[in-house]
Amino acid sequence: MTELLFQENSYLRQAKARVIAIANGAIVLDRTIFVPAMPLQPNDLGKCFWHGYSGRLLAVEWQDGLVLHKLAGPLPAIGQYVRLKLNWRRRYDIMRLRTAAYLAAGILARDFAIRSRLTHFTDEQARLGLASFDVGTLRHLEDVCRAGVAAGAGISQGDGTAVWDETILTLATVRAQYPFSERLVEITGVGRFRDRGLFVKDITEIGWFDFQRTGKTSVAIRLSRLENQS
Length: 230
What we know:
CATH architecture of the largest domain: 2-Layer Sandwich
Radius of gyration: 19 Å
CATH class of the largest domain: Alpha Beta
Low-confidence stretches: 172-176
Mean pLDDT: 86
Number of domains: 2
Shape: elongated
Structural class: alpha+beta
CATH topology of the largest domain: Threonyl-tRNA Synthetase, Chain A, domain 2
Number of helices: 4
């Protein structure tokens, strides 16, 4: 079983791990900082280093209870220790964007009693599906989200079995397919929800973003890149 270090510390950028198996042309590690791909959650990218070799991470997948790390080039042997290095800039963009999506969903639920659903998510854009809404609602959402990001609000994560707000979007299909821990995530003053994705510690970290209406029932969220993230 692979220890999922990202669940305890999503800001961890490097770690040491040991290869415990090779399956389907990929390595299985005793511990990992890399998030596997899930519906509406892209996998992490990065590199593995060992004894003068390095392998670029092509994909991280969850298969039959194993976290498979697919590398470009030769693979380290079973028992080999490897150094893991995360593509932090991409991970951090994903964390910021996921937090922005839930912030928007929470404000829609709180201020307009509109329930939304995450329908599309990459490292560049999130899309919320919701009932028909007007331009005024979109402007209010954008203004309140930006004011909230400027002011800041803490984000806590705890036991996913605790009470949560049914009006905020959730991903039931992800819970059914992936057995690793679900968390209760709360944005102070906005709401609480359950998710397996990763979030920033404070909404000030989201930075600049904008909303774009992509249809009668869809809103896209895009973030600006933070140039100082390596």
